[in-house]
Amino acid sequence: MTLVFLPLSLALTLLVTKAKIVSPRAAEEWRWEQRVWAEEGGLAVLPCHLSPQELKNSWKMLYHKTAVRWERHGGRAHKETHMVLEVECSGVLKTARSMMPRAMVQNADLRHGDFSLRIEPLQRDDVGQYEALVRYGTATLHCQVALGVVTVTVNIPGLVVETETFWLHCNSSHPGKPVGVQWFHNDSLVPTSGRFLSLSGALSIFRPTMSDMGPWRCNLAYSDGANVSATYNLQILGFSGPASSVVYAAAGSSTNLPCTLNHNPSASGIQGVKARWSNLAGGYLGDSGTSRNGDFTLHAPEVGPGDAGQYRCDVSIRGTTITKEVTLAIIMVTPSIKGPVAEGSHLMLICSLTHPQGHEHFQWRHIDSAYSNRNSVEATSRDLGTQSFLLGSTLELPRVSQKDTGTWECSIHGPEGRLGAVEYGLEITDVQVSGPPPILGGQVTFGLLLFIFLLLMACALVLALWNRRVRSPHFPALEKEIPAPRPGNGGKDGGQEGKIQQTEC
Length: 505
Description:
This protein is of the alpha+beta class. The protein is built from six helices and 34 strands.
């Protein structure tokens, strides 16, 4: 008797088991056991695929006619079941108008047993229960997925301005209230103290800085064990580059003082952005007006030592003012010899910098010389006969030669590389073949003038003596000669004649 009723007992057991599977309650429990959470604006993948064993047993049937139909049960926009996407056996694709072109099924994945529904970008109204019916060959597959949406929003529309306090709100479609909330910035846990305040799933950030940019992620924990998270990529409107910078410019050159925003305000719907430049030593410089692309750079056509100093650019955005400070440092070259430089002179070129920051170092380079091909990254020396000089803030030329003519460049370098440079043109106008050192040039000139003066005096004296000698008689004995008597002088002439004869004797 027992053997007779054993098959009947097994049959009844199977019928009861099938009744449990198809009963509405059992189907409801099984239908929504898969839950997927996705971020608003991101990609949501509703899984539906064959197991490896099922794929191994039925992969041949996947190459035959395969049909996939995804439906949505209820939701915010629809209270009844409606079609989301359908791929017919012929390959024709149908998509609901509200899901075009956001919903899709990868055709290439169908033959690999993957029938997952992809929704991108995900919207908040996409929350609901989804069901897939797949027919491949003679087999049928059912997939049920509950889709939940989690999102992080900011209370300020558009970009957040630097130093402007704002709130981040973390929300999800979960019906319960979160029992735990955590915030992370760049994967580091954010302390709820100081500039940060957490309240009911929201995080307040006071006076944000440029370092607060980047991904902010919130984690929500619920009493039913659900843990959901979402990320918000925070963008802050501020200055490109550091808030305080130094501009190195050569004396007499033109330069620009930067004041540029890292984002275009107009592209984010922010209007009426204005800038105001001022010199901390000289006062107000003027308004730059409204810029379309957020560039308020101040152009200086020619700068000198008097222009060096600190400048400030104040930009007003949506009632908030942000400030950028710029230090203008002037590079100058001062020669030890003013005016023309004579060959053989001892010359020193001193390179100086206003408002040094303490990390700069100087390098000299001869641009117009063959020596410029040498490495000037580090301090080197160049032989000038038996003399040499080291690169640094002071360039020393013990004995200037024609090879030194040309342009000398003094460049300033820092940890980040080359910062600026100034050029000095060296010209040699007075060439001396040989002579005393330049420091004795004045004495030589005075001695030369004295020698010429004495030589002229001697020549004048010799010339005077020579003229006097030319005018005197050549025969001193004739100085006492008595002239011969003239006719008609009588006795007088005779007396004179006797005197002549006496003189001759």
